[in-house]
Every structure is written in structure tokens, then in C-alpha cells.
Amino acid sequence: MHVLILGGTTEARALAGLLHPRVRVTSSLAGRVARPRLPEGEVRIGGFGGADGLAAWLGEHTVDAVIDATHPFAERISFNAARAAATAHVPLLALRRPGWVPGEGDDWRDVGSLAEAATALDGLGDRVFLTTGRMGLAAFADRPEWFLVRSVDAPEAPVPARTEVLLDRGPFTLDGERELLRRHRIDVLVTKDSGGTATAPKLTAAREAGIPVVVVRRPPVPEGVRVATTPEEAAALVLAY
Known about the structure:
By secondary structure, this protein is α/β, with parallel strands linked by helices. It contains 7 helices and 12 strands. A 6-stranded parallel β-sheet has the order 3-2-1-4-5-12, sandwiched between helices. Strand 1, helix 1 and strand 2 form a beta-alpha-beta unit. Helix 2 crosses helix 3 and helix 5 packs across helix 6.
């Protein structure tokens, strides 16, 4: 059995470890991170050339199942995976960590895009902690606020005029996030609903500090694609094929 994991996430690496060496596993990474953490099994880096290219690759490499374990906001590759799997007649499973849910005391502003997140900053304060990744910062380029941008690799231009970049990789601790908010005098946090525990401490720290959080909703999984919420569940479903 040959399984292709579209990944780069913590869950994708865990799934590869659960399946390898019981089955042949190939993990595909987009190549957007300079020094990715590599999973067990075979690894390929780079795109496929869209849905048609991926469908061709599945046939050429005799893939028996595809697991879309990409970031919850990797909407394009998820759409291409659904098209390719249907074309190649290969079963597709999406692995998605559960999204975050606001609790008592949270002040969350729910928005549908980075552009909406930028508009939602009106009146929330002058110092913004932006944790939406290094891409897509153009949505905030014309904002007057000061931004602390945290990402694994350096962000791409254009970026806000008043920007400080913090290169760091999770998981993050609650004490560390508390200190970061205090040291940089943060007024508002902007994040995507990535889910999981690795970057969740910032939400707790924001609640404790009474800081509003602008949360970008994640896009839906393509219609008709089965979803697993843990690597263990995904592995069990794949091995049952």
C-alpha cells in the first residue's frame, strides 16, 4: 500500500510516524519553510502543477490513498487534492485538528479573511501582534498601527510600514506569551483559527490581559471529503482501506 500525505503540519508528521513502515509513505511538503521538520518515510518537496499534475503523479506512483494533512488554511492544495483524487479514483481523507472555541472572558472578533481582519482593527489599539504567517501581510500594508509579526521565516513584502519581525517556531508556552504581550505592550492580537495546542497559549494570555483577538475563520474542507481530527483516527481509517 502506498499512501501520499500532503503535509508539513505537526499532525502530518505524526501520521507518517504511525503509518511507516507498516505501509509505504510519501510525504509531500510545499517547500515554503526553509528548514522544515522532516517526517518518517519518503519525502518530496515542491508542488505538483495543480490538480491535473497531482492526478498524474498519483497514477505514475501507484498511490492507493491520499491524506490531506495540510494547514487548515491551505485552501488551494485542499481543493486540488479533491479534484485530483476524484480524477485518479483514489480515496481521499482530510486530517484537520479541531478549531479553537472561545471561552468565558474571551473577546474574539470573528472575520472571514485577512482583509476583514485588517478592517476589524479600527479602534482596537495601536500595537498589534500579528500571527497569521509570513504570507498575506499585504492586507495590512496600509494600516497605520505598529505590528509585531511572528513567523517561522521572514515575511514577504509588502508589509506594514511600522513592523517588527520576530522569527520563531512553536510550540509556545503560556509564560512566554504573557511576557511577549507585556514587553511589546500589545493592544490586540490577530490570528487564524489554526487550532491545536502548539500556538494556543497566546489566546489564554490575551484573555488574561483583556486583549481583544481578531480570529480569521478557516475555510471549509471540500465537499464530500471525509475528515479525521487526529493522526490516530486518520491512520486507523487508512489502514482499513
